[in-house]
């Protein structure tokens, strides 16, 4: 006899089944109508699963010097990886995975600088862990084209490369803090960290593109793939006012002093006096942005390190006195020490307060007398008027130069002693670029120009100039007549027997300038550091003196001077100034203005276009220049100097013939190597710094446009460095 429960169970199951069926049917109907599951579109999901999507990376814009020489650019390097998955091999005769781990490790590891045992260990572990592929940390990253080709020549299956862009700086330490540094962030995108790379990051950074297409399950593109292509928009090109040749002169000169005297810091800047264009800017210590390691100071001291300038500051005190009409160069005063009032601390001249007796104010300025300028500022000008002039020269403001990280100076002027010491550059702090900007008023007939580094911004695709900068007058603190008079007085600092700047005189050009030996504050004693060489030696110079075209500032802090021979600190600054200024003026074709200039010291480049090699070589030899002939061709194709250009006999002349062959470049500088690169359009890579000691193409080998050359550079020995210094000195004798 059936129970009541047994009787109702089939009915319950039928009802549950019906409910379940209705739920499933309703769900299917809903999905069919809406095409969604849990808010996810099935159509879009299917599209995504069968569509390949790739990013097309945008190229970061290149930074050039004023003449189109690349200073920072993207460079393609390669990342090495090894495929371990045997499933990638379809045809056993053409394997697509690592077959012999030992062979791969033994042959590839030496090329990438890795231990074979370590490379083998990584691949064995990857195999055991059933990984698809393995990489080799930093050893397998940023490989050069040469390394890639060398590995590919081994024909080892399962070895592959991935292209990667990195930021490359062709000139190494050249203007490193000015150009700046760009590196990959956590997202793998190259961004500017400092310097111009950071300042112009918005323009230099491009917009990535993309490409997508539909594929089958075997990853092959469909016949109708619905391909969508969005081209990448590369970053813009930025042209700086920096001149590669002037900058190289500056870098080479700083390197000589750095090696010989080991100063704690150096800063230097060269600016076009008329326009404000910065032609060169450098600091030491420096770093190579391609391989910078540990960097103690990332700041650009030319714009970011205000210091007590010392006597270079006196030119502004002088300018104020001249412009106010209180300067009387033939008036006498008592040198040695000066006490402006009963409650004011006395100040002394730099020779221990001995002074030079009763001398004229002109001689006082020539001898860099602190007493002379103190009396000019405090007695003749008055503190309030003196402060007005300091502010008119913008010595308490940023210059507004187009670089990040500028720090303004500070005028210390709260009490009488500070007002007095400011007159000779003590207490008040300013940056080198502020001194250069203020000096431009003296060089420009009273008009003060704004320093700038960006010449123009150019669209990378169309070549259209987006923005271009030009001369900007930002003040006129003194009149033209006053500026001309100050120039004459500053020139006498170089020409007078009493002048402190005699060693800064040039062979072929007149110079207006001012020397300085500034004390360095000692935080521990709240005074100044003492001891031989514990100073900042600096110089501000303009040339030609009558109508300055270039302004140059140099500072060298705490060089290792020879105390036994009382070696003067200006031996460092004068070497840098004379080498850079004289050669830069000649390079810029600025006519010498000294009456005693020997015409034979300057040679005019002959017309070499469409001439025979022998005739051109002979023409240079008649000028006492032995050119380097590149190749055995009978006809001259190019020369690194232009017809009609004025050069010295120290100029290295490269003559390219119609059948170029590789010259012996051992001992050449990087500057010479880059000149060769431009002449023949070689594909050049180099490692190291200093001078070339290895070249990948043997001398005499035929070369052509696009030929690949690898050069290894090494720092010279001490003996070599002394020779290089002598060579640099000869260029200005």
Walk me through the structure.
32% of the residues lie in helices and 22% in strands. It has 733 residues and is an alpha+beta fold. It folds into four domains: 4-49; 54-240, Penicillin-binding protein 2a (Domain 2) (Alpha-Beta Complex); 244-587, Beta-lactamase, CATH 3.40.710; 600-730, no CATH class. The strands form twelve sheets. Strands 4, 5, 6, 7, 12, 20 and 21 form a seven-stranded mixed beta sheet that branches. A five-stranded antiparallel beta sheet has the order 14-13-27-26-23, sandwiched between helices. A hairpin with a 6-residue loop joins β20 (454-458) and β21 (465-468). α9 (244-261) runs antiparallel to α18 and α13 (370-381) crosses α14 (383-392). InterPro entries: Beta-lactam/transpept, Beta-lactam/transpept-like, PASTA_dom, PBP_dimer, PBP_dimer_sf, PCN-bd_Tpept. Belongs to the transpeptidase family. Its EC number is 3.4.16.4.
Q: Judging by the overall fold, what is the CATH architecture of the largest domain?
A: 3-Layer(aba) Sandwich
> Tell me about the biggest sheet?
7 strands, mixed
Approximately how much helix is present in the residues? 25-40%
* Poorly predicted runs of 5 or more residues: 717-733
Mean pLDDT: 86
Q: Which class of secondary structure composition applies to the elements?
A: alpha+beta
Spell out the CATH superfamily of the largest domain.
DD-peptidase/beta-lactamase superfamily
CATH class of the largest domain: Alpha Beta
- Compute the number of helices: 21
Total strands: 35
Based on CA inertia axes, which overall geometry fits? globular
Work out the strand percent: 15-25%
CATH topology of the largest domain: Beta-lactamase
Instruction: Give the total of domains.
Output: 4
**CA-based gyration radius:** 35 Å
* Alpha-carbon distance between the two ends: 132 Å
Enzyme class: hydrolase
Protein name: serine-type D-Ala-D-Ala carboxypeptidase
Catalytic activity: Preferential cleavage: (Ac)2-L-Lys-D-Ala-|-D-Ala. Also transpeptidation of peptidyl-alanyl moieties that are N-acyl substituents of D-alanine
Domain Penicillin-binding protein transpeptidase: 266-582
């Amino acid at each position: 006899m059936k129970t009541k429960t047994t009787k109702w169970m089939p009915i319950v199951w039928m009802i549950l089944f019906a409910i379940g069926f209705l739920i499933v049917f309703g769900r299917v109907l809903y999905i069919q109508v809406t095409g969604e599951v849990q808010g996810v579109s099935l159509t879009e999901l299917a599209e995504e699963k069968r569509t390949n999507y790739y990013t097309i990376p945008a190229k970061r814009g290149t930074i050039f010097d004023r003449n189109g020489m690349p200073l920072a650019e993207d460079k393609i390097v390669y990342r090495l990886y090894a495929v371990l998955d045997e499933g990638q091999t379809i045809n056993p005769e053409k394997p697509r995975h690592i077959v012999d781990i030992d062979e791969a490790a033994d042959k590839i590891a030496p090329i990438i600088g890795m231990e074979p045992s370590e490379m083998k260990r990584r691949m064995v572990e990857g195999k055991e862990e059933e990984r698809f592929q393995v990489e080799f940390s930093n050893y397998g990253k940023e490989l050069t084209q040469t390394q890639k080709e060398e590995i590919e020549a081994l024909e080892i299956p399962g070895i592959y490369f991935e292209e990667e862009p990195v930021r490359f700086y062709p000139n190494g330490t050249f203007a490193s803090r000015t150009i700046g540094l760009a590196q990959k962030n956590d997202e793998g995108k190259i961004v500017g960290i400092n310097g111009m790379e950071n300042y112009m990051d918005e323009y230099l950074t491009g917009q990535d593109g993309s490409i997508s297409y539909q594929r089958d399950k075997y990853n092959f593109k469909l016949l109708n793939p619905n391909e969508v292509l969005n081209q990448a928009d590369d970053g813009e090109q930025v042209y700086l006012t920096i001149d590669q040749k002037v900058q190289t002169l500056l870098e080479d000169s700083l390197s000589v002093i750095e090696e010989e005297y080991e100063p704690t810091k150096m800063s230097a800047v060269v600016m076009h006096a008329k326009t404000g264009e910065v032609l060169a800017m450098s600091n030491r210590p420096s770093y190579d942005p391609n391989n910078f390691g540990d960097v103690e100071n990332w700041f650009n001291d030319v714009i970011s390190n205000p210091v007590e300038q010392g006597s270079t500051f006196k030119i502004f005190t002088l300018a104020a006195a001249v412009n106010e009409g209180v300067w009387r160069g033939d008036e006498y005063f008592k040198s040695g020490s000066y006490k402006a009032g009963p409650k004011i601390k006395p100040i002394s001249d730099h020779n221990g307060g001995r002074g030079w007796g009763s001398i004229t104010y002109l001689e006082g300025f020539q001898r860099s007398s602190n007493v002379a300028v103190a009396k000019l500022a405090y007695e003749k000008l008055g503190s309030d008027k003196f402060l007005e002039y300091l502010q008119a020269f913008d010595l308490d403001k940023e210059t507004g130069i187009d670089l990040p990280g500028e720090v303004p100076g500070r005028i210390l002027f709260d009490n009488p002693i500070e007002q007095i010491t400011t007159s000779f550059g003590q207490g008040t702090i300013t940056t080198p670029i502020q001194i250069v900007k203020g000096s431009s008023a003296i060089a420009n007939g009273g008009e003060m120009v704004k320093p700038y580094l960006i010449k123009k911004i150019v669209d990378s695709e169309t070549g259209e100039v987006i923005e271009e900068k030009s001369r900007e007058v930002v003040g006129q603190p003194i009149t033209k007549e006053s500026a001309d008079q100050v120039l004459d007085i500053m020139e006498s600092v170089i020409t007078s027997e009493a002048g402190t700047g005699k060693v800064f005189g040039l062979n072929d050009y007149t110079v207006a300038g001012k020397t300085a030996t500034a004390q360095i504050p000692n935080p521990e004693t709240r005074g100044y550091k003492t001891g031989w060489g514990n100073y900042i030696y600096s110089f501000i110079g303009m040339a030609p003196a009558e109508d300055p075209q270039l302004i140059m500032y140099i500072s060298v802090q705490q060089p290792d001077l020879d105390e036994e021979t009382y070696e003067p600190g200006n031996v460092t600054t004068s070497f840098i100034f004379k080498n850079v200024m004289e050669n830069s003026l000649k390079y810029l074709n600025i006519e010498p203005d000294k009456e005693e200039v020997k015409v034979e010291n300057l040679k005019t480049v002959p017309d070499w276009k469409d001439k025979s090699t022998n005739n051109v070589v002979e023409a240079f030899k008649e000028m006492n220049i032995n050119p380097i002939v590149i190749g055995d061709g009978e006809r001259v194709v190019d020369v690194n100097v232009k017809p009609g250009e004025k050069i010295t006999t120290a100029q290295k002349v490269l003559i390219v013939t119609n059948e170029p062959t590789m010259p012996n470049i051992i001992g050449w500088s990087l500057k010479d190597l880059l000149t060769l690169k431009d002449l023949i359009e070689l594909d050049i890579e180099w490692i190291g710094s200093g001078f070339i000691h290895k070249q990948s193409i043997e001398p005499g080998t035929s070369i052509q446009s696009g030929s690949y050359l690898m050069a290894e550079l090494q720092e010279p020995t001490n003996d070599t460095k002394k020779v290089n210094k002598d060579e640099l000195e000869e260029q200005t004798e």
